[in-house]
Amino acid sequence: MKISFNLLKEFVDFNLSAIEVSKHLTMRGIEVEGIDNIGEKYNNFVIGKVLKVEQHPNADKLSLCEVDVKGGVLKIVCGAKNVASNQFVVVGKIGAVVPHNQHDDNEKPFELKRVKIRGEESNGMICSEYELGIGKDRDGILVLKNVDEKNIGENFSNFFGLNDIILDISLTPNRGDCLSHIGIAREIASIINSKTKNISIKLKEDKSFTKDFLNVEIKNTENCFRYVAKIVLDIEIKPSPTWLKNKVEQLGFRSINNIVDATNYTMAKFGQPLHVFDYDKIDGKKIIVQLAKENENFISLDDKERKLNSSTLLICDAKKPIALAGIMGGKNSEITNATKNIVIESAYFFSENIRKTSKYLSLNSDASQRFERGVDISQIEFTANYCTNLIHQIANGKILNGSIDIYLNKIENKKISLRTSYTNKILGTNFSSSQIQKFLSSIAICKLKKISNDEIEYKIPSFRQDIFQEIDLVEEVARVLGYDNIETNFSTNLKFPDTIESISIDDKLRNYLSNTYFEIVSNSMQEKKISQISSEKLISILNPINQEMSSLRTSLIPSMLSIVRHNIFNGNKNLRLFEIGKTYFYIENKEDSLSLKNFNEESHLLLLLSGNKNLLNW
Fold this sequence. Notes:
Layout: E1 2-4, H1 5-11, H2 18-27, E2 31-37, H3 38-41, E3 45-55, E4 63-68, E5 73-78, E6 88-92, E7 97-98, E8 110-111, E9 115-117, E10 120-122, E11 125-126, H4 129-132, H5 156-159, E12 165-170, H6 181-191, E13 205-209, E14 215-218, E15 224-233, H7 242-250, H8 258-270, E16 274-278, E17 286-291, E18 297-299, E19 305-307, E20 313-316, E21 321-324, E22 328-329, E23 342-349, H9 351-361, H10 366-373, H11 380-395, E24 398-401, E25 404-407, E26 415-419, H12 420-427, H13 433-441, E27 446-450, E28 455-459, H14 470-481, H15 505-513, E29 518-519, E30 525-526, H16 528-534, E31 551-552, H17 557-569, E32 575-586, E33 599-610
Helix pairs in contact: 1-6, 7-8, 8-11, 9-10, 12-14
């Protein structure tokens, strides 16, 4: 998952560098696999104004331009047909590294230098959106709008919102709360001993009520605990504004239109998947959450027809299914350029059902990834309102009053008791109960009541669905403290062998042979016909991974020959190899029943010489 520094700072104020954040998060079990400083890519790219355009004296398709970049006027040779005086453009100055080279099929970055083009000096480049890596148009230069004289000389990355750092984060399956910026922000707030900010929303709603335009029924309450719907009428489908388009693409999504981008942006911030239906395509103006019929067919947004089973949860209207709940919408209710009215869905679907359906259909999505790990049921309505407000800002429209919020299966916050003595015993520490409270409260796990001098009951926030028992709280204490900060208080009396007699025969052989041979380790499972070469008394695997691993080996030789063959085919002909390994055999007994007595394993040593004994030398 990709995390934006700029979005994190909307939730928590911090001054840590990307390296520091990466180190702290990784030590808390949230691995940072990469850091992409987008702003650094656009050093020496500034906003300029074209003052003058003349025909190049020695080339019909080139122009000589004078461009004001504040602090000087640059003479630049430009080949774009659409360049003209008084345009505001993006200028790559000398030393800038252009992300894309439209004259090179390999699209390699290249550094701008002072050059002469057909006898005329050029001191930079007026860039297209393709060359800047922000679009596909390579035929003409990028002409900026909503820019004036005060913007001249401003860094391009600042103006376009590209002055950001993107972290590439790898999460364990249990930390669904961190598949969002708010989740990572909570961790950073805990690291710097701070709090996350509250984000408030004020919706400008119409007098007409949502409940008068739509009816929602949950028929399967076991797999849909809560369903919220908002309606916006008279919207305008169009490309997203530049800031939103840039941001969703930085976060790994493909920019589609302002409505879809708004849902992905909201999901990235808060971790709650949302889906938008075309209101006019909903038959009967009714939404029904129910299970599919066995072998029912459904065409999803990716244009594939899928055969469903009876455990697949569907979102339906009065006549037909319109979405695979929590996974993907249907082709029959998708947003198109003709869409005018929309329904925004924000729901809580049972993680196990989504996981099974996703696996059964071999269909994974950003939404299913989050539902499988569990979303925060307390934020369902808030995220619907946030997305609705964002859509109103970028697509206009009329927000209907109120929302439909059906919450039948109430989920109460878990309550778990933690003993101070138990925590210290597990971690080898000497913390007081107040210190442990401080650690846990920093990640929103708050004290409910004191049960005894040694035991305290804590309330688990709804976004932490990975905490179930006391030992989980002990792990959280260790995470917040930092594993590196836990001192080791205990020692062991392990005895190591101090004489050669106590070393096993296998290790003695390895020590001797490794002076002149290389040891190999091969798989003890082989193809059945290969195992049968050396013995008919082979042991078959009950559920083999594949045909090549269907029985246990009866000899080390086939594996060794396979390795020799591979080496020779790759030019390595001189080999000195050995392997110490076990072979396995089936033994028939009189009782004719399978037991340990039916099987026998033997240790074997195999040595192999291949090629020349002595290598060629001077």
